[in-house]
Amino acid sequence: MDNLAAYYAKRATEYERIYAKPERQSDLSALRARVGGMFAGRSVLELACGTGWWTPVLAQGAARVTALDLNEEVLAIARTKDLPSGKVEFVRGSAFEIPDFGRRHDALFAGFWWSHVRLEELDAFLASAVAAVAPGSLVAFLDNRYVEGSSTPVSRRDAQGNTYQLRKLADGSGHEVLKNFPGTGELIERASRCGTDAHVELLEHYWLLSLRSRA
Ligand SMILES: C[S@@+](CC[C@H](N)C(=O)[O-])C[C@H]1O[C@@H](n2cnc3c(N)ncnc32)[C@H](O)[C@@H]1O
Fold first, then answer.
1. N or C: which end of the chain has fewer CB atoms below 10 A?
2. Distances in Å between the alpha carbon of 128 and those of 45, 75, 141, 157?
3. Which domains does the chain have, with CATH numbers?
4. Is 69's C-beta closer than 6 angstroms to any atom of ligand 1?
């Protein structure tokens, strides 16, 4: 298992504290409404679902949700969420090797995953994600904007332009975590290589990219 996955396995029980930051509440309630509505009636493949904070939001309007994560530690928490019965299936697996679901989903969502994909691997990841769902699917990625005073500072930038943060867990352990903060231009450019109708919505703390898949 790579560093990122091991870090999130260890962070599982304290992960949702990030959603309690007071200055982010107004954005989060706007996003819950936005994300909850945009997948109405669709069959959604959620990548890197983590503790399932967004899964009930997706499931409220969607026809079905398949939620995938590499770590059993976070999936165990996600399974305890209040979810409409029979609509949601949790699957253990990698976002880089998406299991073959027969392209039965017509939507894809990933929250706070884009920022953890190396820049040099992003186009390949996006192509494979888009190829895992039906042509013409609604695809959306939600992630953080860098906000001074609210975001963990960037500690270093590597030769490829990837940025990193030094994070601490409750047990005092320190972890260097890949965390990229793409601008709107980069999001649109990358999205336009694998889809059409790319659109970015900017909130104070977050960005939401949506596109229609081409492959
Ligand atoms: C920042 S969290 C996002 C969790 C959730 N989507 C959310 O928005 O709250 C990143 C998640 O990626 C998962 N993860 C790490 N490597 C992965 C991989 N290769 N494939 C799928 N999930 C992975 C971690 O277990 C963690 O749950």
1. N
2. 13, 23, 15, 26
3. 3-145+183-213 (3.40.50.150)
4. yes
